Every structure is written in structure tokens, then in C-alpha cells.
Prior knowledge:
By secondary structure, the chain is α+β, with helices and mostly antiparallel strands. The protein has helices at residues 53-57, 60-71, 102-108, 113-131, 171-180, 201-217, 227-235, 253-263, 274-291, 328-336, and strands spanning 12-13, 24-28, 32-39, 44-51, 82-86, 91-95, 109-111, 147-149, 155-157, 295-296, 302-303, 325-327. The longest helix has 19 residues, at 113-131.
Amino acid sequence: MDCPDGSPGHFRNFKKDDFEADWIKVAECRFSQVYQVKLKLWREKCALKSFDGALCANNFYRRIIDEAHKIAKLKFKYIMSIYGQCSEATAVVMEYMSNGSLNNLLASHTLMWPKKFQMIHEASMGMNFLHSMKPPLLHLNLKTSNILLDDHLHVKISDFGLICWEEGMSKMLFMERLTARGNISYVPPETFTQCLDPPGTTFDVYSFGIVMWEILTQQKPHAGCSVTTVLLQVSQGKRPHVEMIPEPKPPECDPMVSIMKQCWDQDYRKRPQFSDTVRKTEALSEIMKIAGPIQNDKNGYKISLPEMPGFPSDNQNGQGGILSLLSKKDFGSFRQSVKK
Ligand code: ATP
Ligand code: MG
């Protein structure tokens, strides 16, 4: 393992042989494969994201490594740590997140309101950190598959810097890069209009609005629509349906929905900064923590979480983490336990 300048915490160049022989494939996408690997020296699991050789020929890998090199210096609780590269495998090596992506979790488990609010708040903290850099570090690829979950279901933003706007780049090429990743739902309307400005922080704020909707509804935006349909609808100001947020909702949901709507405002100048959003999501998330898993809905129904023995809780009053989450198959029986 080479450590170019010898300083601790710096970007390392790992050899394939630095890892134990068994590499477990976690995911395979169009551009990359993600493996769980174990570093012999640290005895620690890492994630190795290996990029497709064809793309690497196109200078793609070099550009990603240049970005990753800068990003590796950043450390914050709600963003993914990058350890280095493994050039033999055209790969970036990073922290391993045992609970995978938010995208997968939203599809497989029903989240309770306090956990939804906490995840929204933690994601906004990660984004606020990136945008607080000078100049702001734009993500441009924020989506639920790039929000990863640790052992206690706390979130970290990943894969920032994978897509970037290059000086002199045409809008068409930029759009192609985004749509090739299936990101169309997260792209703000000004990107596909004639406006030639490079993307700014408001691009990520829009994507965050869509992420909020996905967390609140546990649905996929624009499901079943073609890219053209999404482009047309979004440019006309249409957004995913707020009515899809499931009932019963806590009263704190309305202010959360207003933040979401501001984030995806058609006029990018009206979208808030993360420094503003994060204060609001903090307040709402705190209220939900105090309200806890026992709440009265508007019809006077008591909603209580069943005990889930064996699952760790991760905050002082024992309401966070996995206690706020049920697998989708358990949720049917949970609903029947709602009592007057
Ligand atoms: P993009 O390349 O645009 O980021 P993507 O996020 O869909 O697209 P990958 O980044 O390759 O694709 O990630 C695919 C999946 O691999 C994620 O959804 C997640 O389940 C898993 N994954 C990625 N990084 C890690 C990690 N550091 N730890 C654990 N699992 C990871
Ligand atoms: Mg990713």
C-alpha cells in the first residue's frame, strides 16, 4: 500500500494483494461494480468501487481519481470517507456501509416517521457540509442510491464528485451523463432548458427535494414514465404527487412538505440553501424524537411501535435506529395492531 506523501489519512494507492482474496460483489451497475473487501492490514471491511474498463479508456477513471484525491481529505459524520484507489482494479476504495443504500431500504422496509425525519435531516447535514466548502462542493448525483446506511441506519452521502460540470462542456453532454445513470428524476428543469449557466448549489437542492419525497412516500418518482415524459412534465412544473405520502401523518409532516416544495421550486432562485434547510429539518426531527413512536393521529388513533427484541437502539431514549423500522412484510400485521 503506497501512501504518496506519507501523511496519515492521505489518499492511498492499494494493491489488489492488500485485500483478502474473497471479494464479495455487492452491486453491479452500468458503469461500475461494488465489492465488499477486507483490508489485510487494518482488518477492516472496505467498499471497492471498480469502474468499467471501457469508460476508463475515455479518461473517466483519471478524472474520478483526481476528484477522489481532493475529496479524501474531507471528513464529516454524514459523508462517506474515501481511503484511496486501487489502480490495478480501476477502483476507488472507501468506507463500507453495512446497510447498503437508502434506495434499497425504502423498497424493503417501512420506516416510521421519526426515522424518516432523522434521515432527511442527516442527509441535509451531509449536503450542507459539502456546500459549505469554499467554493461549494457540488454533488450533481444526489439520489437515494447515493445515500448509504451504516450499522445503526445513520446516513452518509456518497459518490459526490463522480459527475462534474467541465469548463466548456455542452449541456447536451452533461444531460447525457446524467440520463445514462438513470438520474432524470433528480435533474432540475433549468438543466434541460436553453439556459447555459453551469449548475450551481440549487441543482443539488432540487435533487434533495426529490429525495425527501422518496423518503416520505417510500415510492419511486415518475415510476414507469419515459425520459421524454419526465422532461416534459418537469419542465411544465409538475412534480411527484404529495398525496402519495401515506396516512396517518404526524402534524410535523406539513412543514416538512413545505421545505420539500421549496427545494424543488421551478425557479432555482427561490430554492433554499442547505444552511437554511438544515436548521428547519433539525427542529422537525427533534420534535419527532420527543414525540417518539407513540403518537395520536388526527382521528385519535394510537399508533404504537411493537417491541422488536434483539434490535439495537441508537439514541438515549431508545427510539432511533432499527426500532423505527419494520420490514414490509411485518408492516401488515403492525397496521392491524393500531388501536382506538
Ligand atoms: P452512481 O454510479 O451514479 O453513483 P449507483 O449509486 O446506482 O450509481 P453505485 O455507486 O455503483 O451505483 O452503487 C451501487 C450500490 O452498491 C449501492 O446502491 C449500494 O447498495 C452499494 N454500495 C455502493 N457503495 C457502497 C459502500 N461504500 N458500502 C456499501 N455498499 C455500497
Ligand atoms: Mg453510487
